[in-house]
Structures
1.
Amino acid sequence: MNHSDLLQVARDFGDPVYVYDAEKISSQFNRLTKAFSSVPQLRLNYAVKALSNISILRLMHSMGSGLDTVSLQEVRLGLMAGFAPEDIIFTPNGVSLEEIEEASALGVQINIDNLSILEQFGSKHPKVPVCIRINPHVMAGGNTKISVGHIDSKFGISIHQIPHLLRIVELTKMNINGIHMHTGSDILDIEVFLYASEILFDTAKHFPDLEFIDFGSGFKVPYKAGDIQTNIEELGEKLGKRFNDFCKEYGRDLTLAFEPGKFLVSEAGHFLAKVNVVKQTTSTVFASVDSGFNHLIRPMLYGATHEIINISNPQGKERFYSVVGYICETDTFANNKRINEISEGDILCFNNAGAYCFTMASNYNSRFRPPEVLWYQGRAILIRERETFEDLTRNQRDVKDLFLQKKEKVELK
Ligand SMILES: *Cc1c(COP(=O)(O)O)cnc(C)c1O
């Protein structure tokens, strides 16, 4: 998508608006698939929480992706989007036994990340195959050093609890068909990731009936020029080889699974917002857009950097701007950034707006959530309507009669 395509989307659908480039999503999918082409059975399960629009899920389905889900509602969205239950893995954290049972009744692959639920689920449903989420306690240090950490993480079953885990499996006679890890941190150093994988391979040897090993995600994508990104090709070559060797050792071909979210959709997304006001203060120049952290919270929540381009004046002279929103709270998107000269009414494009942007949007300040548009084969297709005042008030109950009664009573006295 070029700048004039994006401007046309803003003209046709209004602003602010999210736009997703289908071609970028499929090229990322193909890149990951190609990097692991040495592995006979590869499975990519797209992490729904990154961007959960049903039409995006349909696109993932058409490419041959499976789904990674973290709530019963994401499971239901996946089924609605045409996925077979066996193409969906349910990887929640801290949910009730009931929610896991409901997901299991829908036929999806269950992934359990604590011993309490494992024992309860295994006792009640010993025939249902279950994947277990392991916490290998490995994380990347600030440099190439491997440090052991994440001891406080709430995710996964600690490798130090393997004896307890094995006892539960033995006593309940449940069937463990997969093992999984997802540390949640970006893969900056492939050696660190391979080290964690070795822990997973060691754990795998305890379970004779595995069908797959799931390495989670953590693929880092560049947000700005010069950012480190995961070297997918190198990872594919090294982990692929190691995985194939492990399968020989294990005695059977297993499926290698990943759950990429950000990697597939981050760079495909653009968020377009209009500049309402250019405000020169004593210390800086603010450009205020018709949005805020109600639509894009990552800069404020994580300190994430989203590249901002003035697509209305891409050749203009560069000036320093602080880009802020219209929320009555500090909602700074960028501080003193070089951007091509901004006039009121210009459209700014926030890049890398595909992952964890719309899905984290809210109605704070009683603003509407923006529409979503899919750019597919040179056409802009609306995949979510802009909200309306009816949407905002739909579930609210107005108790005005309650207060009227009270007032009348007071007046009677
Ligand atoms: C969020 C999540 C992912 C996706 O992570 P990304 O960094 O977006 O690729 C994968 N697996 C699980 C279990 C997750 O919770």
2.
Amino acid sequence: MAAPDILSMDSINVMATYGKRSIALVRGSGARVWDADGKEYLDLLTGLAVASLGHCHPRVVAAIREQAGQLAHVSNLYAVKPQAALAQLLVDHSFADRVFFCNSGAEANEAAIKLARKYAKKRAGVLSATAGELPAESGEMCEQGPYEIITMSGCFHGRTLATITATAQSKFHRGFAPLAPGFRYAPFNDLEAVKRAVSEKTAAVMVEPIQGEGGDNIATEEFLKGLRELTGKRGLTLILDEVQTGLGRTGRLFAYEHYGIEPDMMTLAKPLGGGLPLGAMLARQEVADAFEPGDHASTFGGNPVCCAAGLATLETILEESLVERAAELGGHLAKRLEALREKHALVKEVRARGLMAGIELDRPGKDIVARCADRGLLINCTAVTFIRFLPPLTVTREELDRGVEILDGALAEENG
Ligand SMILES: *Cc1c(COP(=O)(O)O)cnc(C)c1O
């Protein structure tokens, strides 16, 4: 099927939540993808930080094929080895003692929100032994105790009702009120403001170490360390959303390692399933113990095929030192982007940590991204004015250089 036919079938039948799409991709290998007409693109976006080993990594493809031919799904009534083994690997390499698997970043954050509330209520001693009467209206508060989660301006935690509410950006709320109760917002990187927002209602603080969708806003050391101290002192849980920063992207396996702190809970998704849908919520034992059998579940969560792909991905990241590679190549990419800032007046700032990097413009970046795609480079623009790279951890220096050169040309055209 030719690209125009796929695009017209797409635009007529798929709900228009993503805007009009202009490229129909059919095949990928490493950092390259091809459209239905055979045009090749350099993919330095990697499906929004998902295919962290590049497209169709042989080890991931083999793991998927093997597991699909053995057992694709049995539900969480039964144990399966890929899920147990991936949980073990995550526990071995992080602060966490326990893992809950789901299918996406939003679901991982939903699980974290539920666990934070239950843990806070358990600590406050307000949990009743029985479920009690169903109130007439869903919003009626039928339990006492802390429940509020403090989140940060410019954050992004997902698109479900609770996670858009957690997302402190009004553009994600418009048309969907009433939102879920129980969230309070504070400015990112403003420790004093978070301190002022804490009350007897507070259960947790949730934050991204780097706000990816917000335009790679990097948490200061003072802020994250301060949040760790504050939450510890006040008996609150610290939830880190590492859905985008996790698993090597920033040059450490988890971004919290840059700060010398450990959270109480962490959420993962994007690269976790090696291209298949997989999310996870990780917690310390004491926090995890607040979830009892029946409290939370997901039919597909921890699906054997997704976990087999995730296991192959994480093993490859660890065995091939791809975290160190991300740190090194990230340094190179940051330098090349810095040169673009010196050359083009419209580039105001470079924000980069490992292979999570980009440039802040003095204008919307949408047209520049479209021109890059015309020239065979896939990157994207977020928060209107931030053009970002999320290349695979396996990307080569030459591929990064070629990507920056294409962006350079697209920026030059904007100037002239
Ligand atoms: C993408 C993202 C999410 C949402 O993940 P989905 O899989 O789209 O639900 C949540 N948090 C962060 C930091 C993200 O980047």
